[in-house]
Amino acid sequence: MTDEVTDAGGRRSDRTRAAILTAARERFAADGYERATIRAIAADAAIDPAMVMRYFGNKEKLFAAAAEFDLRLPDLSALPPEERGAALTNHFLDRWEDDESLKALLRASVTNEVAADRMRQLFAQQLGPTIAGLADANTIATRAGLVATQALGFALCRYVLQLPPVAELTREEAVAWLGPTITRYLTGTP
Predict the structure, then answer these.
(1) How far apart are CA 190 and CA 19, in angstroms?
(2) Which CATH number is associated with domain 11-66?
(3) What residue segments make up the domains of the chain, in order of their start?
(4) What single-letter DSSP state applies at residue 168?
């Protein structure tokens, strides 16, 4: 294990920080927030646990740093309004199915306030601007919140709780059920 923080150019410091974050994302995804330990993350990164603490301070701060996600939301403005909900639903399904650490953040956000706050920030900072060009400025926050209820609720039931009817839906069925609701949230009126 290495205890070096920097070399002449600070590159070792960057590599160590990156190794810790990679190990943390994998450990949080595999074990969840509650069961992941600083000691296990340090072992995965092949460093001393004190180094994790030196870089991040504590487990919550490490989790917050590791939970930096780009939802890579698509540009919906080029699509006809009636297709936007299906496109966004497909996109969310891709993200949930391809990113274990995003599922770990969802699991942790149910019981941990730091994780819940990170999830709130993630959706507010990324979903709001995506919707901004599609609707009246006075309704963007509400629309983003309603889209988040569908995306997060569906993900929780399908990928975390594995509720049989929802977990067993094909992608096409999931899009058929969710797409119209998300379209309404994006383009409809109350």
Answers:
(1) 47
(2) 1.10.10.60
(3) 11-66, 81-187
(4) T
Q: Which residues does 173 contact at the CB level (< 8 Å), separation at least 6?
A: none
Cα(6)–Cα(127) distance, rounded to whole angstroms? 37
Q: How far apart are CA 110 and CA 106, in angstroms?
A: 7
What pLDDT digit, counting tens, does each position of 85-123 carry? 999 999 999 988 887 777 878 888 888 787 888 888 888
Give the pLDDT of residue 146: 95
d(CA 59, CA 40): 12
> Residue 47's beta-bridge partner residues?
2
Task: Record the tokens describing residue 91, joined without a space.
Answer: 């996109």
CA distance 20 to 26: 10
d(C-alpha 43, C-alpha 45), whole Å:
5
> Contact, 69 vs 24, CB < 8 A?
no
Query: What is the chain's Cα-based Rg?
Result: 19
Q: How far is CA 72 from CA 60, 91, 125, 137, in A?
A: 25, 9, 12, 22
Q: How high is the pLDDT of residue 110? A: 84
Distance CA 52, CA 57 (A): 7
